[in-house]
Amino acid sequence: MVKIALFMFVFIIFVFGFLYFWGINPGDITVYLTADQSITFPAPIILVTAILIGLLLGNGVHILSLGVASIGNWRRNRRHKKEEEIGVIYRNGVARLLSGDLKKARQLLQKALDRDARRIDTYLALGNVALQEGVPAQAIDFLLKARDLEPKSIEVLFKLATTYAETGRSGDAMDVYRELLANDSDNRKALRALRDLHIEQSEWQDALALQKRIVKAASSGPKSDSEKQQMLQLRYEVANQALAEENLEEASNTFRELLKQQADFTPARVSLGDAYRKMNRASDAAEVYQEGYRHQKRSVFLSRLEDLYMSAEDPSALLGFYRTQMQQDNTDLLLKLYLGRLCLRLEMVDEALEQLQAVESSGVNFRQLHLLLAEAYRRRRSIDDAMAEYQQALEIDSRLNLGFICDVCGAIHAEWNGRCTACGSWDSLSLPERQQIQDARPSEQKAIPHGQR
């Protein structure tokens, strides 16, 4: 009622205004349509008509814009509702995937994909389903479709690259990582993954080039020290490759640089000695090995020295080094072990036994030591002592127990158990050579003629 009353009031005001305007403007206005045709109207009529037309046009545009906006809102609401429905289906599919119900997960995710074929997360989830189902080729197809939709998506590219790597397609994985780095050159995760693939392929130069980029990107991060150590190791591998290719000067120079950077880096010191040997600088090689053992007490240096001097038919020089070192440190059990072995090789059985027994009496107990002692006793014709050492070396007890091994993790057990204590697998312990015995076939037994033994 209020609106009607207001409308009537406005209408009455408009009528009175119109009549007043007409009264004070009695003239007519002629409008020519052509040179010969014209229309004459009172001035108030023309003015009011113009006002009404303007109002109609303004309201028409307003009504049209309201209609367009209403249609747009309807479409947005419909699209939003559809996205919510697809989101619910997708989340249910992911929940099924996480619970291990792969069949139902695939159905739900495929349904979500059918309703919206441009959802990247659905392709990724279906890829995970395919991987868990053991169909990596199908997983890669889903991931490639996702990449076609968003070629620069870091998540998609990482998933595609790792899937390639897990399925043994290292070359394709490398290509994807390079594609990712083309868009994000300082992505450390991609740099490390690509570096690791080059390491797996023994492509040391490429791995080192990537490591330099990683060190530069992580110059002040928490992994800075470990990355620098990794670069040192890769530099060693590049130099070691040069050594194998007979680029001896280049290799030896790098080994020396690495030792200046880290004096206790054993591989560089060992390989430097090896490089000197290849360069016919035996005395320099011996000095490198001896210096390495003095500072690091690593058995590899003694092995290298023994090989160097024995190949040169100069065991006396090696004995001299051992005895000099023994005078400086008579408690060096590693040196006693190697000296005992050398004496055994040189048929110096009594001194060999002395050194080896000194190691054993210190509580050291491992198979190779018992084998060396057994051989020394055998050469002294102490058969009972030799047999006792052989038994310890072979871990043979009085019951001739054969022992058991875990088929899953390879852990050795003296007694059988229903569950492996190392990896927790059930019913996995068996005789170490069980498969070999089962696969073998007894040789054919020939009949023995009567009267023959």
List key phrases describing it.
single chain; mainly alpha; elongated; 453 residues; 3-stranded antiparallel sheet
How are the strands ordered across the major sheet? 4-3-5
Shape: elongated
Query: How large is the share of residues in beta strands?
Result: under 5%
Structural class determined from secondary elements = mainly alpha
In short:
The chain has 20 helices and five strands.
Structure description:
The chain has 453 residues and is mainly alpha-helical. Among the domains are: 68 residues, no CATH class; 57 residues, no CATH class; 36 residues. Helix content is 71%, strand content 4%. It has a three-stranded antiparallel beta sheet, with no helix packed on it. A two-stranded antiparallel sheet has the order 1-2. β3 and β4 form a beta hairpin. The longest helix is centred in the first third of the chain and has 57 residues. The termini are far apart.
